[in-house]
Amino acid sequence: MFAIIGAIIVLACVFGAYSVHGNLAILWQPLELVIIGGAAFGAFVISSPIKVIKAVIKGVLSIFSAKSTSKADHLETLGVLNAIFTKMRKEGLIAIEGDIENPESSPIFQKYPSTLKNHHALNFIADNLKVIISANVTPFELENIMEIETDAHHHEALIPSHSVTAIGDALPALGIVAAVLGVIITMGKISEPPEVLGHSIGAALVGTFLGILMSYGFVSPLGTLMQHNADDGLVSFQVIKIALVSFVGGAAPQIAVEYARRVIPSDAKPSFSELEEAMRS
């Protein structure tokens, strides 16, 4: 939603201010849009394997529906971790085997629908709990394992944003390409009156304008937004990692969950009282 609002602000300010003294009609150069947009897309296809192309398309489409991880989402993550830790303490490690083998059918996970929908976080919890119950892993070893997986997941999540940002960086140069082609066409009209040449040169310069506007007004900010979304998705992994390492290190379930709460960003961090109330309920 905010991406659309931002795009409207950019268009309104740029074209609104220009229209006070300028002629909007001369800015309508669809062939230059084809040159710039087509060349950018072609360069993207050349530089990207098919899995990256799919990831970028998915990432661009997701920005219109994606939302930041909320306080309620973090409370659910902390809640399911507390429930699992408590069961492990009371009934033993093997007691959670059925829960982590099939989380969708687990009574514990079914109480936390937000966690069930977050498949990456769900698999992260289940896989590392399997390591805990199947091997005598130390907190240091477990942290290393989870750090490796977290880094790999974050690297993969950042690929679409890096690709979009690279396209944005190329657009000003592609705008110059369109402008140069326009100048070449203008040179063929050198014998025309000054008003014809002026109109042709102005149309050629629109290519540079469009390349810069598309880069810094739309595509590069889109890449930055996708990076923020990827960073936001990393928080859940950090919360889970801290909780699991603390619990394996000997912390009580409530203490392990409290350690995890501390790494949540302030805008979405539940208070100590809110967490305590959630654990009671």
Defining key terms:
281 residues, mainly alpha, 12 helices
Helix content: over 70%
Residue runs with pLDDT of under 50 for 5 or more positions = none
Q: Estimate the mean pLDDT confidence.
A: 90
Shape: elongated
Describe the overall structure.
This protein is mostly helical and 281 residues long. The chain has one domain (29-281). The chain contains 12 helices and no strands. The chain has helices at residues 2-21, 30-47, 50-62, 71-91, 97-101, 107-110, 113-117, 119-134, 139-187, 194-248, 253-261, 272-280. Helix 3 (50-62) packs across helix 9 and helix 10 packs antiparallel against helix 11 (253-261). It is elongated, with a radius of gyration of 27 Å.
Provide a quick synopsis of the model:
The protein is built from twelve helices and no strands.
How are the SSEs placed, and which strands pair?
Layout: H1 2-21, H2 30-47, H3 50-62, H4 71-91, H5 97-101, H6 107-110, H7 113-117, H8 119-134, H9 139-187, H10 194-248, H11 253-261, H12 272-280
